[in-house]
Amino acid sequence: MRLFFLFFLFSLISCEDSNKNSNFVLNVDLVVKNDDSLHIYYKKGGTINFNENESFWVRVKGQNKNQKVAIEFPKDIVPNQVRIDFSRNLEQREIIFNKFEFAYRGNSFVAKGKDIYKYFRVDDSNTLLNKEFGSLTRKDTTTTVGPSLYPNGYYLAVKLDELKFKK
Description:
Blueprint (H helix, E strand, L loop, with lengths): L1 H19 L4 E8 L3 E8 L11 E6 L6 E6 L8 E6 L8 E10 L2 E6 L3 H4 E3 L4 E4 L4 E4 L9 E4 L3 H11 L2
Antiparallel strand pairs: 1-4, 1-6, 2-3, 2-5, 5-11, 6-7, 6-10, 8-11, 9-10
Protein name: Lipoprotein
Organism: Flavobacterium saliperosum
């Protein structure tokens, strides 16, 4: 009887773990010195016409060192394009974006440093980029519109589709 109970408990835990890993996740490594928020936009089709209905917010606790932030997408959302808006906090002078990893069902792909900008492009209307240091800053320091990264053509879409269909 005990053996049956242990087997049942192990099976239940295994199912829970596989369910946790079934959501699409964007892991970012960054330096955000003040408490702030990231606004994540996503598309499931072939467009980059982002809107509020396909977006969500993630709070980030300020730290003076690198931190890893796991951004879990809503259930059943597997995007093929992603936009990241950094910082609504006017006291946030810069964000250092070191690395990202997209993960889905045990598979992932990673880009770090300058390679990030193969997949994302800076929104020149509101963002200044120092590629050497990975530093993103807002152009206008008097507005809450912070730095933004948009998909760089279809490079990101291709990688996300590969990840989605990888077995």
